[in-house]
Design goal:
4 helices
């Protein structure tokens, strides 16, 4: 697991926001198309890694949460106060898990937005090339 900050750094290093789409001639358009395809590939790998990390977090927290689950026999033996403490602790753990996952989901949404922009740019470039070629 890398962490959301590492993924954010990777996205920043790609410099997608500052990229210009050059369709002034067919050669530039094709070069831009190749750059977009490379970016798309990298973004898909990043998205895959993010999703893998989210699954790992969920798996880790399922194990932690299961430790707080009581069998019916155990819950009868514990006082209501102790049961409430366990429930409260379980809710805190779930809240922590959701918070951790949320930071990954924000980065994943950025990746999805970039992929959408790349797809739109590819369509624009293809149409530009088709108009020039005929």
């Amino acid at each position: 697991m890398f962490g959301p900050k590492i993924y954010q750094q990777q996205l920043d290093e790609l410099e997608i926001d500052g990229m210009e789409i050059d369709v002034s001639n067919i050669q530039n358009a094709m070069e831009t198309m190749n750059e977009l395809e490379e970016l798309e590939s990298v973004l898909k790998k990043i998205r895959h890694n993010i999703r893998t990390d989210i699954r790992s977090i969920r798996k880790e927290y399922i194990q932690i949460i299961n430790e707080f689950n009581l069998s019916p026999e155990e819950s009868r033996e514990l006082s209501a106060r102790k049961v409430q403490k366990r429930i409260k602790k379980k809710k805190e753990i779930i809240k922590k898990r959701n918070s951790k996952i949320k930071s990954y989901e924000l980065i994943e949404n950025m990746v999805d937005n970039y992929l959408t922009q790349i797809s739109d740019a590819q369509i624009y470039i293809k149409n530009s090339i088709e108009r020039r070629v005929g």
